[in-house]
Design goal:
Blueprint (H helix, E strand, L loop, with lengths): L2 E12 L2 E12 L3 E5 L6 H9 L6 E6 L2 E2 L10 E4 L11 H11 L4 H14 L15 H13 L5 E5 L7 H18 L2 E6 L2 H7 L2 E6 L2 E6 L1 H6 L4 H6 L4 E11 L2 E6 L4 E5 L7 E7 L4 E4 L6 E10 L3 E8 L4 E7 L12 E6 L5 E3 L2
Parallel strand pairs: 3-8, 3-9, 6-7, 7-8
Antiparallel strand pairs: 1-2, 1-4, 4-5, 9-10, 11-12, 11-14, 12-13, 14-20, 15-19, 16-17, 16-19, 17-18
Bound molecules: adenosine-5'-triphosphate.
């Protein structure tokens, strides 16, 4: 497997502000890789360092094995798509797409040919002669993509490119982006704070917080096996409950909830007995007769969400518990005030380090 981008202990300081505290990441060639994290965690800074718009304070970035510190942005085999598409307003769509090729000195006939093929790829051939203002937001973003792909960069950096679009369009564009990456074989590095976007498109995701990488893995790894409390809370929805852990053996532990119930949990390496949090996803809690259930709670409200329902309950010790129920169960839902039992699916309770 070839490594496209190798980031080694990247530190970036802006005066007193440290935006990145020693980030190391290996991004494989031909992958859809996502940098995911809340606002201010350093995602854009990392992208700008790869593009060459900023200089590293410490560390090293290699592109296909070559240190790029001394390489000007226009000499890196990299292109960027921004949130604001920044198309040239007085140029036709096809001229916008061909622009990067012109800068590279590609002859006119080949330029038009390649730009035409790029427009075909983003399904906009019929719009080649329009001006950007005559296109919808989604179409403009597809032109920006075609323009960034036309010079055949080896790495495409995408900085929240879908955030200006409405929800339906964003969902459609996710599928299109993923398919564009697969068709071209170009390494995509995609920045977003939207976890659903990251989960649907990425081969691998780096979850970032406060200038550090918290976890790197496939969507399923970070959703099913979050490494710490931040990742469990940031990715999807979860119940985070305080527990006291006693014995730990062979990756499993018994933990006492505040109401005295004992539950069996998976335990990450290195965790010690004491006070911790356990994460249980709402879809892995199930209603059960109160007798013999893992948890006891009182129903507070049921929220109808279309394809499923969210049941909000409270444990005897005051913890809120969220349970996801399939829409098909809607005729059978206990009413607010009802006492219910909840069982935890095997392996669904995960102890977390802070
Ligand atoms: N030019 C700058 N000067 C000073 N501080 C900066 C500069 N650029 C970024 N920062 C700071 O570095 C940190 C990381 O910023 P960055 O833009 O990389 O975050 P982000 O995760 O991309 O956030 P967002 O999703 O809001 O764009 C923030 O605390 C930010 O205020």
């Amino acid at each position: 497997m070839t490594t496209a981008v190798d980031i080694r202990h990247a530190v970036k300081r802006y005066g007193d502000v440290t935006a990145l505290h020693g980030v190391s990441l290996e991004i494989a060639d031909n992958a859809f890789f996502t940098l995911l994290g809340p606002s201010g965690c350093g995602k854009t800074t990392l992208l700008r360092l790869i593009a060459g718009f900023e200089d590293l304070t410490e560390g090293e970035i290699r592109l296909f094995g070559k240190d790029i510190a001394r390489l000007a942005p226009n000499h890196r085999p990299v292109n960027t798509v921004f949130q604001q598409y920044a198309l040239f307003p007085h140029m036709s769509v096809i001229d916008n797409v061909a622009f990067g090729l012109k800068m590279k000195g590609v002859p006119p006939a080949e330029r038009r040919d390649r730009a035409g093929r790029m427009l075909e790829m983003v399904h906009l051939s019929a719009f080649a002669d329009r001006l950007p203002a005559q296109l919808s937001g989604g179409q403009q973003q597809r032109v920006a993509l075609a323009r960034a792909l036309a010079p055949a960069p080896r790495v495409l950096l995408l900085d929240e490119p879908l955030s200006a679009l409405d929800l339906k369009l964003r969902q459609a564009m996710r599928v299109e982006l993923k398919s564009l990456q697969e068709q071209t074989g170009i390494t995509f590095i995609f920045v977003t704070h939207d976890q659903e976007e990251a989960l649907t498109m990425s081969d691998r995701i780096a979850v970032m917080s406060a200038g550090r990488v918290q976890q790197v893995g496939a969507a399923q790894d970070i959703y099913e096996a979050p490494i710490n409390r931040f990742v469990a809370d940031f990715i999807g929805e979860t119940n985070l409950l305080p527990v006291t852990v006693g014995q730990i053996a062979a990756g499993r532990a018994m933990a006492a909830l505040a109401d005295g119930h004992q539950i069996s949990c998976t335990a990450p390496e290195g965790i010690r007995p004491g006070a911790h949090h356990v994460s249980i996803r709402p879809e892995r809690l199930h209603l059960a007769p109160a007798e013999g259930a893992d948890l006891a709670a009182t129903v507070e409200r049921v929220i109808y969400k279309g394809n499923d329902l969210q049941l909000v309950a409270r444990s005897a010790s005051g913890e809120e518990l969220n349970v996801r129920l399939p829409n098909s169960a809607r005729t059978d839902i206990p009413a607010p005030g009802a006492r219910v039992g909840l069982t935890i699916e095997e392996g669904a309770a995960r102890l977390l380090v802070d």
